[in-house]
Amino acid sequence: MITRKKARTAKIGVFAVAHATYWAQFDGLEGNIMGFHKDFVKSVEKNAVETVDFGMVDSSEKAYETVKKILAADVDILFCNMVTYATSSVFAPIIKEVDKPVILTALQPLSALDYTKANTFMQLENDNICSVPEFTGVAIRMGKKVADVIIGSLYNDAEAEKAVAEWCDIAKVLHDLKGARMGLMGHTMEAMYDMHTDPTALSAAFGLHVPLFEIDDVISVYNTVTEDEVQKKIKLIDAEFDMPEPKSDPVTSKLTDEDKYQAAKTAVALDKFVEKHNLTGLAYYYEGNENSLHRKISSTFIVGNSILNAQGFPMCGEYDIKTCVAMLIMDRLNIGGSFAEFHPFDFKEDFILVGHDGPHHLAVAEGKPVLRSLKKYHGKPGHGASVEFKLKEGPITMLGITQDANGKFKFVIGEGISKAGAIPPTGNTNTRGFFEPTTKEFVKKWVMEGPTHHYALGIGHRAETIAKIADVLGIERVIVK
Q: Theoretical Cys-Cys bridge with 10: which of 151, 172, 348, 393, CB 3.0 to 4.6 Å?
């Protein structure tokens, strides 16, 4: 029942390059080559993106004309389709003026020439790699850099298709970072120095905006919530969550009707709050006086935020907007993005528990997530419904966003494995994380990179993709191994 509210998408620019002199020399070559180009454009479109085909650029004059069209189209990334040899004069104006990731695609129509029938015409149809070094070299001389080169076959090449799909995924991240509204509400949890972040620095690094809110902004919509809206949300909660009896932790109890009702009402208010302010995501922390409406609402965000995470709106606690951005990146890669930190080691089986007591990304849960009533939230005020689940079993990726002494952002990235096994029944998310070469060695290397204690947790091994995003954004990054 919980589905993404906003489809992942991006705008992809594509143009072909060639050497115009060939057209008069070889009748039919241009038509054949443009047919191959159209097939490439179709292969890009399969990745659920909008494509803008700028056609053939085979002269420096056309290059300057195409620059204007590319800038006007405001694409997220640009594929330069190396359909045959082209002089670098058709590329230089574009790489110089377009401040977007440019990927060269050198995809041959034939996986190999038929040498018994080989001729110049056939060679030119498959000369996709010939000018790639010329293009990359000229880019560097222009003070720019080609983001990537994809080499392979145009047809039936799974590796090439995966590389194109990866860049389409990256484009979807860039598309939604640009102009994102990542709300910040409340204040930093007292004494958490690693949570402090300058909103202007976030805007400079990621191209997003950080609107600032008070808990009263949620209260204003909370007061408009109707009983019908609450009951509809309760039905969704009943369908999506298990509510088991408590186990070993005396802090937990079976979800009470009172806690479920309050979680549902707050969830409706959060939906309205996100819609009213056109938010992409939210990081928050607020305590409020005991028995106040402010505390009642702010301490019951967890269920509503977990649902919003699954719908594509990253929401995280403890005022950690850096991790909220990391969660957005993971969500737009379609790999989840739960709010997470390290919990106790298991030195016997060589794993560490990975999770948190706050909102989580329900779309990447292993099985049905659990709701428990907590009599207290450890380390912070309040009580109520809390979400507990394990991440899907298999490969996992972690992304932490931290800052150095000069305030520059840094991506700390790691990969591991989530395996089956019992987790503490504490009403918090926990996953058994296994890492190479040993979990203890990995965690030591991780903490030595100076991360924040939170990070975004997702499924699959996507460290290299996230590293490419950092490179595109001009942000330092390290993959911990």
A: 172
* Residue 425 near residue 252 (C-beta atoms within 8 A): yes
Q: Domains (ranges, CATH) in the chain?
A: 11-177 (3.40.50.10940), 187-479 (3.20.14)
Cis geometry, peptide bond prior to residue 437 (ω within 30 degrees of 0)? yes
Summarize pLDDT for 414-438 with one digit per residue, the tens: 999 999 999 888 888 889 999 999 9
Return the closest-CA partner of residue 352 out of 433, 454, 423, 416. Answer: 433
Whether residue 95 contacts residue 139, with contact meaning beta carbons closer than 8 Å, is answered with yes
DSSP, residue by residue, 355-378: EESS---GGGBSSS-EEEEES-BT
3-class DSSP state of 127? coil
Q: What are phi and psi of 305, to 5 degrees?
A: -70, -35
Q: With CA atoms as reference, report the closest residue to 34 among 121, 125, 114, 106.
A: 125
Q: Concatenate the DSSP letters of all residues of 37-74 into one string.
A: HHHHHHHHHTTT-EEEEEEEE-SHHHHHHHHHHHHHHT
**Mode of pairing for the β-strands spanning 409-419 and 394-403:** antiparallel
DSSP state string for 423-464: ---SSSEEEEEE-SS-HHHHHHHHHTT---S-EEEEES--HH
Closest by CA position to 326, among listed 430, 186, 466: 466
Task: Give the residues across from 431 on adjacent strands.
Answer: 354
pLDDT digits (tens, 9 = 90+) for 313-346: 999 999 999 999 999 999 999 999 999 999 999 9
Query: Is the separation of the CB atoms in 82 and 131 below 8 Å?
Result: yes
Residues pairing with 78 in the sheet: 13, 102
For 400, the enclosing helix (H) or strand (E) is: strand 394-403
In this structure, which long-range contacts are made by residues 466-469, counting pairs with CB atoms below 8 Å and at least 24 apart in sequence? 466/329, 466/333, 466/397, 466/399, 466/411, 466/413, 467/411, 467/413, 468/147, 468/148, 468/166, 468/170, 469/170, 469/173, 469/174, 469/329, 469/411
